[in-house]
Structures are given as C-alpha cells and as structure tokens.
Specification:
By secondary structure, the protein is of the alpha+beta class. Helix content is 45%, strand content 26%. It is built from 12 helices and 12 strands. The chain has a 12-stranded mixed beta sheet, with helices on both faces.
C-alpha cells in the first residue's frame, strides 16, 4: 500500500536544482501540463512578485510526487498568480497527481479557490476550455484551419472579411506586428483594459500594482522556449488593437486583448487574433489556446476542447454551512437561480481577493462590486 501523502510548503527560491529538474521532467512527460502556466519559469517569476507566494512539495514514502504553486490571501489559498493564472493544478507525472480535495486538506486552509483546475479534483463543477489546434507546419496550417472554420461558420468569417475591407477603406492599409516587447506599449494596453473595467463595472485587476508588474516581468524574460509578448494591429497610422500573450514550446496562449472601442464595428481585435495565428503558425506555434469560458467569439475559432474544473473547497464548519444556507435563500428568492448567482458572486470575489492584499482593500472592492450588482439588478427589474 502506498504511504501517506505529506506536504511541505517552501518559497520558490528554496527549491533545489534537483527539484527544478524534476519539475521540468513532469511537465515534459504530462500532456495535461502543456500550458505555459505550468512551466517552472512562470512559477519562478510569479513567486517573486505575487505577495505571500509559496510552493507545496508533495511527497510519499520520501519521494517527491508533485508540486503545487499557490498564494495566500488572508485565510484563503489560491493558485499562484491568481487572477492572472488561467490554468492551475499539481505538477506531477501522469496519473500521480493528488486530487484537488486532497491538496486542500493537506494545506489546511479554510478555503481553496480554483477557476480552472487541470487534473483529478474530487470537487467542483466541470467546465470546458476552448483551444484551437493547428497541426501542420508553416503558413499552410493556418490556411487549412481557416478554410475549415470558414466552411463551418461561413457567415461569421465573411463578416470579418468585410470588416477588414471596411477598416482599410476608412483608415488605410492594415499592418500587424507580433513578438513585441515594448514596456510603453504594454502600459498602453493596461490602460485600455482599465478603461474597459471601468465601463463594464468589473473589478480593476491592475489597480493593485503587482498584477501589472507580473506582466512586465514575464515580458522581460529572455530565456528560450518561454516568454510573453504582444501583437498589435495598425490601420494606416492608427493603433487599433493589442493583445498580450504567454507562450512556451509550441503553445501560444491568448491572454489580454484590447482594442479601440470606437472601432468595434470593424472588429480590430478579431482581425488581430486571426493575423496573430497566421504569423504564429509560420513561427512554429501549433496550439493556440483561448482559455475557458468568456467571450462568445471563441466558439468560431476553436476546434478542440479540454476539461477543467471550477471549485471552492471549504473545510467543514460554520463557513460551509452558511454557504449552503445562502444558496438555499438565494434559490428561493430568485426562482431557482441561487446557484448561478452564488457562482457569479464567487468569481467576482475571487478576483478581488486575489488582487487586493489587505483586508481594507478587499472590503472596498467588495463594496464596489456589490454596488455594481445592485445597479444591474435594478436595471433588469426596471426593464422587465
């Protein structure tokens, strides 16, 4: 019988050369860990920047079987880099990762939040993550992908072709550059995202400071086979769209897109994504990952899926009991929508909690989010 699973939490810079080598062996051997977020380089950089970061070393019979990078926010534990980390899980060999529930128990935290857990869970609801797979080499791979997508979603892509012509007619020839690492351009992108959060009432994840610092640090990374960069689209002399992405090996993860709202009718962000894929294929990337959930446009691009889990693991006790009672009350008051409302609230709170490192800032963020929710609910009632 296998021995008891044990845990030791250390700082990332306390891991040995042997630990880092084993980490890399695990990610190389386990196809579930192909995302750049599971690379040692991401953990090394994020651990220097995210407050209260740590790595759990999981052992059995004296043998290291896994690593779990994470951060603490008050009494809660979250994956390292949240809310900036699109995937999370235990770094382990195939078939050896403990479940999410087991990790939560070993860490002993009252609450463990995950939004996209890869690997065995034992808890949480299943969600699908969407990604585009382009299997051939060079420009031809993009052409083949586009031909298939255009046949499947003809109306959508014909509309984007018209949008391209319209944008060029209005502003001038379209030019796309990728592999950009200009800090000033990244600051411009962050400014566009902050404006978007203000317009939509979402929590400003860049107001806390460390999240923007993380993007800059990842982009400054110069090691081969891992890094971050931007792509940008100009029409004439006008910058119309930017996207920040993370990449490792043959994986390219679309991460933070932004475009000029005044040009939304011309879909500059979608046109940039398409051209980035074309240029990325020529550069050797084979999997373009759009992440899970979110924008409806992703279904038009993606021809493969991967399953992830979203969960909040609560230790038995007053907190879990109150959570169940709250769901029942919401369910009764909202005609069966209690679970959906709680999920929405939890996602908003998880982002606030991850960004803000002091109780006062977390409280202010929660109050602001509650105000937005009340205004939206009042607006829906008035419309009804």
């Amino acid at each position: 019988m296998a021995g008891t699973l044990q845990i030791e939490v250390v700082k990332a810079d306390q891991l040995t050369v042997a630990d880092v080598a084993l980490w890399r062996q695990m990610t190389d051997a386990n196809p579930d860990l192909a995302s750049p977020y599971f690379r040692w380089e991401f953990t090394e950089i994020a651990s220097r920047i995210s407050p209260d970061a740590g790595v759990a070393i999981l052992t059995r019979d004296g043998r290291t079987v896994g690593y779990f990078p994470h951060q603490r926010r008050g009494s809660a534990i979250q994956p390292l880099g949240a809310p900036m980390n699109d995937y999370h899980g235990v770094i382990a060999m195939p078939g050896e990762a403990p479940t999410l529930a087991a990790v939560a128990e070993l860490l002993g935290a009252p609450r463990l939040n995950v939004s996209a857990w890869v690997g065995p869970s034992g808890a949480g609801s299943l969600r699908e993550t969407l990604m585009t797979v382009v299997p051939e080499a060079g420009e031809a791979s993009y052409d083949g992908w586009y031909a298939e997508r255009r046949q499947t979603w003809g109306k959508y892509f014909k509309d984007k072709e018209r949008a391209r012509r319209s944008l060029e007619a209005e502003l001038g020839p379209i030019r796309v550059e990728h592999g950009l690492r200009d800090p000033a351009l990244l600051d411009h992108l962050i400014g566009l995202k902050r404006d978007q959060y203000a317009r939509t009432g979402r929590h400003d994840i860049f107001a806390c400071g460390w999240t923007a610092e993380l993007l800059h640090a990842l982009m400054a990374e110069t090691r081969t086979d891992f890094g971050a960069s931007m792509a940008a689209l100009w029409a004439g002399d006008r910058l119309t769209a930017i996207e920040y992405s993370l990449h490792a090996g043959d994986r390219y993860h679309f991460w933070f897109p932004a475009y000029e709202p005044a040009l939304a009718r011309c879909s500059p962000g979608i046109l940039l994504t398409m051209d980035t894929m074309r240029l990325g294929c020529a550069a050797g990337f084979r999997v373009f990952d759009f992440g899970f959930g979110g924008e409806g446009y992703k279904k038009y691009f993606c021809n493969a899926t991967q399953s992830v889990r979203e969960a909040v693991v609560l230790k038995p006790g007053l907190g879990a009991s109150l959570s169940d009672v709250a769901v029942g009350l919401l369910d009764s008051a909202s005609g069966g929508r209690g679970e959906r409302l709680r999920t929405s609230v939890r996602r908003r709170w998880a982002a606030i909690e991850a960004c803000e490192t002091t109780p006062a800032n977390r409280f202010m963020g929660a109050v602001a989010a509650a105000g937005v929710a009340v205004r939206k609910a009042t607006g829906r009632q008035a419309a009804a």
